[in-house]
Design goal:
The chain has helices spanning 57-77, 82-85; strands at residues 5-11, 14-22, 29-36, 39-47, 100-101, 113-114, 119-122. By secondary structure, it is an alpha+beta fold. It has one domain (5-122).
Amino acid sequence: MIPGLNTDVRYKGKTFHIQTEDSGFENPVLITHVFLGGTILGSEKQSYQDAVGRDDVEGHVRDLMRAQHRAMYRALLDGRYDDLARRPTNTSSRKPEGAIPLAGRTPGMGIISAGRGTVILEAPPPAASTHD
């Protein structure tokens, strides 16, 4: 089993979490979820059964994980989950187990904590639209 990927993304004033996990060689499936407030907004699954016998299987699976994780990140920023994000979600302000403060952050600055190993990204503000 290859360690998973976790990314917190600040987008349109909300903090989304993207998580990609490997189910292991016994069940060779990669699963990526996009969360908002503990609610899954979207998921992608990908089998890598055909790659299990490869000599470079771990490196190959890591590449597949990164690509799937990036695709979900791009989908989030492209607005795929905007409608779902408008619905009420679990808005608990409780920090995750093992949360650590982020250097240079104070409350009110968006993302203020994350679990160990979590990558923190803040999405750029949406481009201003112009109507003539």
